[in-house]
Amino acid sequence: MSGYDYPAFLESVRRVRRTAPTGCYYCDVVLPETCGPAATRAMQRLCEERSAFVVDAHHVIPKQVLKREFPEGAVHVREAVHGVAGLVLGESRWLPYDARLALVPPGGDPATWKEHVRTLDDLLMDERNGVLLRRYCHDQIEARNRSIPLLHVPESVIDFANELGLGWYLDKMDDRRTG
Ligand SMILES: [Zn+2]
């Protein structure tokens, strides 16, 4: 069942991000795109020396943001909209869990409806939101000395954020860096 489990999260992030040569997304992807070759090499060396081979899984949308926005998890809802043909099902999206929304829809099967609720732990365990960083770069990002520019945020993180209506967080993160 669910339950936030860091080693399992690290393992699934490793599975989805297996291509990184050094195992540090910041060193492999962000540095070469944002610094010159000499600075990139120097910073990669620093990361290598200070990290003692420790690789972490980093939540790009921070755990605190997920905990704050989805304290009780998320529920998948479909808006009912009035169309030409009468009442039709509109856009579907995930909203913060609310007991009143988690009702079985008319004609719905309670067994499958359970799949439409994701616990906070499910969200914290979603590997699409993870990148691998060596310990040094991870510490720098957690201390907000650095951030991953929106341009280099992996597609899967953007999908994850949009699905949960958290695109604003990525925009804010980018503004902080450039503004
Ligand atoms: Zn690094």
Chain-wise SSE layout:
Layout: H1 6-16, H2 25-34, H3 37-51, E1 55-59, H4 63-69, E2 74-83, E3 86-96, H5 110-113, E4 117-118, H6 120-124, E5 130-134, H7 135-142, H8 155-163, H9 167-178
Helix pairs in contact: 2-3
Zinc ion (ZN) is lined by residues 24, 26-27, 47, 134, 136-137.
Principal-axes geometry comes out as elongated
Please give the largest β-sheet: 3 strands, antiparallel
Number of strands: 5
Integer-rounded radius of gyration? 19 Å
Bound small molecules, deduplicated: zinc ion
**Total number of distinct structural domains:** 2
Strands side by side in the biggest sheet: 3-2-4
The stretches of 5 or more residues where confidence is low (pLDDT under 50) are none
Could you give the order of the helices and strands?
HHHEHEEHEHEHHH
| Helical content class | 40-55%
Mean pLDDT: 85
Distance between the amino and carboxyl termini: 42 Å
Number of helices: 9
Q: Strand fraction band?
A: 15-25%
Classify the secondary structure makeup into a structural class.
alpha+beta
Short précis:
This protein is of the alpha+beta class and 179 residues long.
Q: What does this molecule look like?
A:
By secondary structure, this protein is an alpha+beta fold. It has 2 domains: 6-62 and 127-178, no CATH class; 74-118, no CATH class. It contains 9 helices and 5 strands. It has helices at residues 6-16, 25-34, 37-51, 63-69, 110-113, 120-124, 135-142, 155-163, 167-178; strands spanning 55-59, 74-83, 86-96, 117-118, 130-134. The strands form 2 sheets. The chain has a 3-stranded antiparallel sheet. The chain starts with 5 loop residues before the first helix and ends with a helix. The model has no long low-confidence stretch (mean pLDDT 85). Residues 24, 26-27, 47, 134, 136-137 line the site of zinc ion. Zinc ion (ZN) binds next to α2 and α7.
